[in-house]
Structure formats: C-alpha cells, structure tokens
Amino acid sequence: MLLILKQNANYSSLKEKLNNSSASYKFLDLYGKKLVVTWPDTYVENIKDESIEIAVKSKRQFPLVSNEWKKDPTIVKVKDVEIGGDRLVVAAGPCAVEDEEQVLTVAKAAKRAGAKLLRGGALKPRTSPYSFQGLGERGLEILRKVGDQVGLPVVSEIMDTRQIDMFKKYADMLQIGARNGQNFDLLKEAGKSGMPVLLKRGLGNTVDEWLLAAEYLLLEGNGNVVLCERGIRTFEKATRFTMDIGGMIAAKLQTHLPICADPSHPAGKRELVHSLALAAVAAGADMLLIEVHPNPEKALSDSEQQLTPDSFELLMNRIRALANVLGRKV
Amino acid sequence: MLLILKQNANYSSLKEKLNNSSASYKFLDLYGKKLVVTWPDTYVENIKDESIEIAVKSKRQFPLVSNEWKKDPTIVKVKDVEIGGDRLVVAAGPCAVEDEEQVLTVAKAAKRAGAKLLRGGALKPRTSPYSFQGLGERGLEILRKVGDQVGLPVVSEIMDTRQIDMFKKYADMLQIGARNGQNFDLLKEAGKSGMPVLLKRGLGNTVDEWLLAAEYLLLEGNGNVVLCERGIRTFEKATRFTMDIGGMIAAKLQTHLPICADPSHPAGKRELVHSLALAAVAAGADMLLIEVHPNPEKALSDSEQQLTPDSFELLMNRIRALANVLGRKV
Amino acid sequence: MLLILKQNANYSSLKEKLNNSSASYKFLDLYGKKLVVTWPDTYVENIKDESIEIAVKSKRQFPLVSNEWKKDPTIVKVKDVEIGGDRLVVAAGPCAVEDEEQVLTVAKAAKRAGAKLLRGGALKPRTSPYSFQGLGERGLEILRKVGDQVGLPVVSEIMDTRQIDMFKKYADMLQIGARNGQNFDLLKEAGKSGMPVLLKRGLGNTVDEWLLAAEYLLLEGNGNVVLCERGIRTFEKATRFTMDIGGMIAAKLQTHLPICADPSHPAGKRELVHSLALAAVAAGADMLLIEVHPNPEKALSDSEQQLTPDSFELLMNRIRALANVLGRKV
Amino acid sequence: MLLILKQNANYSSLKEKLNNSSASYKFLDLYGKKLVVTWPDTYVENIKDESIEIAVKSKRQFPLVSNEWKKDPTIVKVKDVEIGGDRLVVAAGPCAVEDEEQVLTVAKAAKRAGAKLLRGGALKPRTSPYSFQGLGERGLEILRKVGDQVGLPVVSEIMDTRQIDMFKKYADMLQIGARNGQNFDLLKEAGKSGMPVLLKRGLGNTVDEWLLAAEYLLLEGNGNVVLCERGIRTFEKATRFTMDIGGMIAAKLQTHLPICADPSHPAGKRELVHSLALAAVAAGADMLLIEVHPNPEKALSDSEQQLTPDSFELLMNRIRALANVLGRKV
Ligand SMILES: C=C(OP(=O)(O)O)C(=O)O
Ligand SMILES: C=C(OP(=O)(O)O)C(=O)O
Ligand SMILES: C=C(OP(=O)(O)O)C(=O)O
Ligand SMILES: C=C(OP(=O)(O)O)C(=O)O
Ligand SMILES: [Mn+2]
Ligand SMILES: [Mn+2]
Ligand SMILES: [Mn+2]
Ligand SMILES: [Mn+2]
Q: Which CATH number fits domain B76-325: 3.20.20.70, 2.130.10.10, 3.40.50.2300, 3.30.1490.100?
C-alpha cells in the first residue's frame, strides 16, 4: 500500500497506527512528495488518518516504480541533462577507459555529434579473470577530467558496495551492470547514495525482476533511476544477446521512470548497432547508451561492437531524423 | 558450391563431369539465372567447364539464400504488389477468417489505411484441439472473394502438404507458420508450388535454421520467399514471444530475400503492437504483417493482440511518417 | 467436461441434450471406456443424463491426457512390448537407417543387450536440405525386415500426413519428431491411424503444449501414446539441447500416459549420453530411446551422439542395476 | 599457460624472464603445488626455465579449473566433511534461518537422516524488497550455534564483499548465490578468504561462464570450490527453473572440482524435488543441497519447495539405495 501524505501534516498519529499494526512500513520523500510504503497490503487496508491524502493499492509488485500513483513521467537529472523529457538523450563513450587520449578523442567526437553524456568503464565485469579488468580509480579520474574538459557529465559502472565513495567523487551517474542486476546490497547502497542510477536489466532477468530491482532503489528514497534494456540471454547466437524491445515497452507501460536502450551489447557486432538503436528510438526509448571507440579493433574489451566516431556521427544523424518524426529532439 | 551458368550454353559436358564426381547436384532456374548447386563443396572444387560463368563458394550453409552470389535485393511479387522494393508493404487482416462480413469490414478499412495485402487464417494451428480450428476451405473462399472485391491480394496459412491444390485455387501467397518452420515436407511442397511464400521463423528456431528453411524452398526452384520474424520463445513472459529485431537484421545482412516483421504475435497484447511495428520499420523491415479485427474482444483466436481498424489506421499514419524519413514509401 | 458413460446404455437422450446445448462434443472409445468430451465447460455444466456414470471437470486444458479421470497408468502395447508397466523399455537403433547390414548389426547388439524395440529413421528431418534426407520407403523396408529377423518391433519417424499408409505397412509405432511437435494435421492423422505413437516434445514447446499435442491424438480416439522428452532449446550450448528432467516429471505428475526420455539428442555428444540416460531412469522414465550405430563416426546423421554397440551394452548394464533399486525390471 | 613448478626450486630466474616478457602472470600455491599462470598464452610460449616441471597449455579458458593439469578429483574439506570423494555429501536445512527452534528441528532431523552439512540463509537475496530479507548476523549466530550443538558444519550465503569477516566468524563454507554468479568483486574476496566456497551457477549463465567464475576463485589461490547447478532460466514455467543435468555433466567432464546439485530451487514445488535429486545422483553429482523446513507452508521464503523432515528422510533412503548401486556411500 502506498500512502501519499499531506505535506506539513502531523504524522505522529499515523506512525502510531502503523506501529500498532503488524505491517512493515517506511516513510519516504520522493519526487517532492511525502510517502509511506507499507506491506503486506492486507495488514493496513483499514488504516485511516488525517495525514493521508490518498491511499494507493498497487496491482503490481512495485508500488513506487509503478505509474499507478505517479502518472507524469519522471525526469532524471544528471547535472543539467534531463532524461525522460522531450529530448532523447544519448550517452556515448568507450566500453572501457583505456587512457586519456582515447577517452578525449571519443568524448570530443561524441559531443560534436550530439551526445549529452560520456560513458566509460573504469571497473569492468569480465567473464574471464584473464581479461582486462579496467584501470580502476585511475580510469575514473580520466573520465572525470575529460568529462569536465569537454563539458559532458559522466556515467560509469560501479561493481561493489565498497566503491560508493569513490564514485561519489568522480561520477555523475552510477551504472549498475547486467551482471549485478540482482546484486541487492549494491542496489541498496546505490539507493542510499542518492546519485542518479542507470540500472541495466540483468541478462537473465524478467521485466518484473528488473522493475523490482528499481524498487530497491526507490525504497531507499532514490527516485533518480533510469532503466536500461541491454539484451537478454536466449537460444539465439547470431547476436550476442537478444534485445528485448517488447520487454522494454512492457516496462515503460508500467512505470514513470525513463527507459534507456543499449544497442551495443545485444548487437555484439558493429554492423547491427545502428538498426537496433533506431528500433529502440522508434519504440519509444528516452535514452540510448552507445559504445564508441577511436579504434575499435584495438579495444581492450567489446572490440567487435564499438562504433568508430564516424559511424557514431552517422548514427546520430539518423537518430535525429527519426526522433524528429516522433516529436522528439536529440 | 554454386555454379552460375552461362545462358544458352551446352550443359552436357558439365553434367557428365558432375555425374562422374561423387557430388550431389541440382540444376535450377532462379531469378532469371541458370544455376547448379552442388554439395558437398569439397567434391567439386576442381570442376571446370565452358558453361560455368562463375563458381561461388559460399561461407554460409545456405548458398542460394545467401547474398554472396546475388547482391541485389530480391523483389517478391504477389500479383502486382512488390515486396522488397522501395515500398514498405503492409499486410493486414484478422487472425482467423470468421465470416464474410468480418473479413470485408477489415479488408475495407485495411485498404483505406494503406495495406497492400489481405491476411486471414482459414486453417488455424491451435495449441489446443478444443480451440477454434478455422473455417477450412470455406474460409479461403471468403478470403478470396473479399480480396477480389476490395482489390487486395490474399495471404493465408497452409498447414499440410495435402492442401497445396486448395491454396493454389484461392490464395495469392502461402504463409508457413511458426509451428511449421521446420516442417520439411511442407517446405518442399511449397517450394514446388512456385507460389510466393511468407516463411515465418519457427518459434524455437535460430536465424540459421530459418535461413536453411528458406533454402529448402529455393532448392525447389522457388525464389519467391519473404522471411517473417514473429518472435521467439524466451524466458520473458511480459510479452507472448520475444520479437528478435537483432536476429531479423542478422538475417537481412546475409540474404537477398525481403524481410517481414509480424509485431502482433510477439506482442500478444494490443498495446504493444504499435511500438513493435515501428521498431521493425526503423530497423529495416520490408514488410509488416498485422492482425486487425473489427471487434477484437470477440475474436475467435488471438483476441488480445488484434488491433481495431481505427488503431490500425493510426498505426499506418505513424508508419508512413517513419518510413518517409527512412527513404521509403508505404 | 469429460463424461464417462455407462457401458451399453442408450445414449440418444444425451446426444439430443448435447445437440440442444451450444457445446461442441465428441463421443470416444478410450481404454475400454465410452466417453464424451464436451467444450467449453460452461456450456454443459448442468447436463444430466441417465447414461452418464461420472462427469469430470478437469482443472487442466487436456482432460483426456490428464490423470484426473484415469488414475491407473496407461500401458501402451507395441506388439508384445508393454510401455508404462513394470518394465523399463529401451528402444535402440541408429539415428538413420543407412543400409541393411548397419541396421542388422545394431539390432542384434541392441537385442542382446536388452533393448525391446528397434528404432531407425527412414525419413530424416534435417536442418539443411544438403544433409542426408534418409532412404525413404527403402529404409522402412530394411527396418521391418531386420526387426522381424531379430524379433524386435520397430519405431520410426513419420514426417508428413501422406505417409500414413506407408507407415502402417512397415512400422509398429509412429515417432512424431521434435520439429513436428505442433504439426497439428500430422497429429490428427496419427490419431486416426490408431497406431502407437511416440510423441516427442517440440524443441520450443512447453510441457503444457506437449500435453495438448497428445490431447490431439487422444481426441481422435487413439490412446496409445508415449510422451518423449528430448531436450529443449535454451541459451546453453555445452549440450545440443537442454534435457528437461523437471519438465518430464511435471508432465508425468499430470498424466496417465507413459513417459520416455531420449538422452541422445540433448546430449549431442556421446560422452554425455550415459549420465543423461541414468538421470532419466532415476527420475522415473518408463522408456528410453537411444541412438546406437555400429560405427558412429561414419554415421550419415547425428554422428557425434550415437553410441557404439559396446558402449550401449555397458549402459544397459548400468540401467539394469539402477532400475533394480527403483523396483523396476528392464 | 600453466607452469607447474618444481618444489623448493629457485624461481628468481623465471620471475625475471616473466618480467621481461609482456605477459601477465601470477604465482600460486594450489593443491600442494607451486604454479604460475601466465596470459595470454602466446606471450610465453617459448619461456624455458630450470624451475619449470611441466608447462600445460590449456585448450580451455579456465586453466586452473580444468582437469587437463590435475586429473585427480579435488576433495574439498569443510571441517571433517569431504566433498568430491567416495561419499555423496548431502547438505540440508531451511531456505532461511527464521529462529533457533526452526533450525534446531531441521538440523536434528537432517543429521539423523544422514545429512553431513547444515544449510540456512541469514542474508536472503529476494527479488522483492518487500520480502523477508533474512535475520542477518543474528541468523548466522543461530546457524553456528545449532551446527555446533548438532555436530554439522554450516554453509550459508554471502551476498556482499563487506560481509567476509562476519562469515569467517560464523560459517564453515561460503555459498555464492545464483544472483551473484558473476559478482566478480565478491568472487575475488571469497577467493582471498580461503574458505570453502559453494559456487552456484548464475541463473542466466552458461557452463563456461560458471567455470570461469570458479577460475576467479582459484586465481586467488583458493582451490576449495564446489560447483553447484541450481537450474537455469528457460521458457519452461512448469518448473521454477530448468535443472540442467546435461550442463552439470558437461562441467564435470572438464574440471577436477566437485559438483553439487540443488534440486530444490529448480523444482520450485515440493513434489518434484525427489525426482530431481535422484536424477542428479544418478548423473554423478558429488553433493546435494536440499531445503528442509519443519513447517514448509509457514516458511518465510521458498515455502512451496521446501521438504518436510519426513519427506527428507524418505528421500535420503532413496538416495542411499541409489548411491549404493553407483558405488558410492552417503
Ligand atoms: C558491461 C557493460 O554492460 P552490461 O552490464 O550491460 O554487460 C557495459 O556497459 O560496458
Ligand atoms: C498463427 C499465426 O502466426 P504464427 O505462425 O507466427 O504463430 C498467424 O499469423 O495467425
Ligand atoms: C530426429 C530425431 O529426433 P528429434 O525429433 O527429437 O530431433 C531422431 O530421433 O532421430
Ligand atoms: C537463494 C538460494 O539459492 P539460489 O542462489 O540458487 O537461488 C538458496 O540456496 O536459498
Ligand atoms: Mn561493454
Ligand atoms: Mn494469430
Ligand atoms: Mn537423430
Ligand atoms: Mn531458497
């Protein structure tokens, strides 16, 4: 049950009633509203209190993430970039931060082409321990420096709860990766951090599980969440993962949170990235996350799927034309 | 090995050489070319003959379907409708033919909105034997009659080899359904029929298996094949099937055949159909197959996913705008 | 609704009542019972008649296949071999019939080791049209001849409705393959034939869809059906398919029909076949279908997964020991 | 490349050569051997040194986990319990630690029935933030206390790197859950801890990814790893997950590490647990992990799949009989 409270009311009698029920509950400030989430529903169905404006009984498992109580789309701000509004936001950058020159080259090209955020992994979740694991803090330093120089806010993947302070120092947005899509301690800490979060769908996770992962973030009082579809595991091996446009839309229809699509990881191959990006835009994505590398063939990770700056620029032109027809700016 | 032969040459010495090798081979007329397919490759690598224009060794398992030898996109003609050319072709109609009035209502609306083909199942592959199995020949009669009346060629699903003559009588294009995506006898007969074929990808089939199913058709000398992506089986249940845009593009990059997308069956729910349709168009589909019913809630099959005529018209407008930017007419 | 009728009663008043309702219905003789299936349930809930012994309202979609009305396990007889009884039945033989000597060698070895049925494909459903397609009728002749010579009933895959008469002539049991798991015309004809059917689960089919495929057979009055799990399509590629023991048991708990496991096709590799076979026996399979070839490396199909006769003999000894502990003979 | 070194040799010249190459390398003590892993292979192919006993070039991506260099099965000791040896080891206990009495009841019953390890989650990875999240440290205290009282070593799931010290204090074996199957920071810390690890396969992970996750542990010098198959995500929903016996065996054939099967989580329903457990034993599992609860219907997590103590005892008798035939004790 979601209780939307009157602002500046006295909540003490409500608290008492909740304490006397056997329900669990949590007071939250989200999107400028005072809320109480209580569960399970049945325990509090009859609670009435002066301070309650509306009580919303969600038909879904994720009352906060659901658009049942909040019908206006949420706009997530990363510095001055607004995700979820009129503009389609594109984040671009290398899979992994490799060195300053690499990031700078990409960042300049990305900015020129119209990207609004710079991405780049400093900590890389690699299937094999023998693969390049990322530059660590040094990578974040580079990303921060280049982002500032070029004038793009930066997003980078956090892999572990112990890294929160480091990311607060260097990053503007936390990326939670597909392999941590159900790392619940990390979700809780990212929620507590209050930082904007780009939450990838776990590669083996259903739409419901993805939205419930977001609910973990919101339940910590952090409403700055962008959901990111990046392909799921299926039997098909012609692509690296199967980009689930239908699942992305099914999510969008249930939530007020903005939705991002990452066409690079499902593609796995450069030549598929454009089509998947355009498909996601046409289907209604609010944001795209695209891997770009100055010299993809030499990349230390995901070398087959990264676009060259030229190909990215071409893609941006195609995206712009498409977005235009859909009534959106880039 | 694919041998492209000189026109009007004498092939008898080539035939003799092939007979003397232990290779299997087949002479074909496809797209105005004389061809020989021989296999396995290794058996004929050294065959040389006057009558051979070029010998193409395919890197893929489907030499005929592959675009290695035929770089221009194939245009499949269904009466006067061209699939695979400049125009994006939309086929619309009910999941199942239920009665004449139903089909007529939809056909008129579809035509008015810009559809170029009329679809409708007379024989329905139903998971349960207790579900409506289709009107049979009577359904085909209705479809034919309405198609002629409204001026739209008709496409309908064939389920069994014994029905070929019946379909020749009533239909302009054979649809082979997802449950028959590897019904090899049906593929062979559809190939022999020479009729245009809309070949759905089997719901559990890989892109390679789908292209090999098409190879069965071409190897019978029938090059009039449109490939249709309609969603694959995955763990995700928020949609009925997972529309595999990436797989569709992976197919397109390997073949000269036109590609169709069916957004209705993967959606499973009306409210997802528009987004999936637009995504498919943006990704480069040459054709769409969309279920439309005058009164979807009363439909005898697939009632949750069929669009109303009004919603279809709206979708056509959105598709037209999108196609326009992509340099395509509808 | 399933109506179990009194034997030798007068059914005319019941028929009249059914005709007067708007329900569909079918009279059947199954397992020595007179039955009427009617659908949808709601239309006939209130029908009462002298001739009705019990009316069973199934909670499942497959009333005939369900064990709600028939609690005793069905025993399917293939000549004198009983499947579903005390004995675990093993069918063995080559993937494809290649020549008489090949089949004879395997048949003798299989018989000696304890197999009770001889398998062998005369018509092969091959992913590629360039792969060996089977010997056709000649293959069935060989199988029949060898089966008679060695004293083993034979089972072989039928691929198309037009082949029913041919199979009646040569085979003791029809196999319906994984690619035809939802070929509904074939299911109907196999049902009408009355022959014992080994019904493979479609590689992309759920347990429910598999049981509904069996319902198609029973609804034609053919109760001689053995369900065969042979692996499903999943993301895992370390094996050819994923043998779904859990799904097999989930099926068994809902049906009176015997269950077979085919460990050869999910394994895809010889070295996995023993373990999968033993797992299936331990889980409760009533029958096993195992590919054995005198010289697997030379096999014209499925060469990596076929066992040598020696390995098969060893496996049979292991199966026998296991079955013994489980209270079953081989 | 894996270099197995002579004991007590002087490694300084080897170190120098490695430093002079551009290869990465790591010295390790594993299973009583001195080893160096170097990568990528090509960089060190020609290195020769006095101190090298054998250089093993693995054909697999996980040289340490692979059985190419270590042919004898690894026995993982958890206190005095040996996993991977002659005895089949069964770990039993509740999904979640709920209170002392609950754990004690189960622990006594489990011990009596023949279980050798006590399981129980103190930290629960729950899909929903509104589900019971576990008792935390208090849960570990209870588990430890009951384990000591009853005389069973305890295994419990760790969810985050910050919990390592707490687990060192209370647990005998770390469980890494299916949702953390690619939580690489957690894998590294679990590796460094040196504690025995029960490594579940990620629910969306391939066999190769699972073995590579284990490689992360061994590369930290921790060879005490048991691999646990617990079902993968597939389209089938008749069971909670699809237990991949084939994948489990494919893993076993490539590694020296012991393999555990968890039949409870793939089953999702009590009535399927016995069959899946027996199947896993027949296929060759070295260990089983089974959820048992004194009153499953009241359980705070996984209530549908937990066995009662009585059902567990019955299962143990069936397992014992089966193991016996397979030449194994319980
Ligand atoms: C690792 C990445 O993505 P994912 O978590 O989706 O695999 C990435 O964005 O580089
Ligand atoms: C049955 C149909 O499609 P599919 O074969 O893709 O399920 C259909 O087009 O109505
Ligand atoms: C083709 C066969 O099986 P399936 O239909 O299960 O692939 C076979 O039994 O040889
Ligand atoms: C949560 C558990 O398992 P898994 O990680 O396999 O889901 C468990 O063992 O209780
Ligand atoms: Mn990447
Ligand atoms: Mn339909
Ligand atoms: Mn076979
Ligand atoms: Mn559990």
A: 3.20.20.70
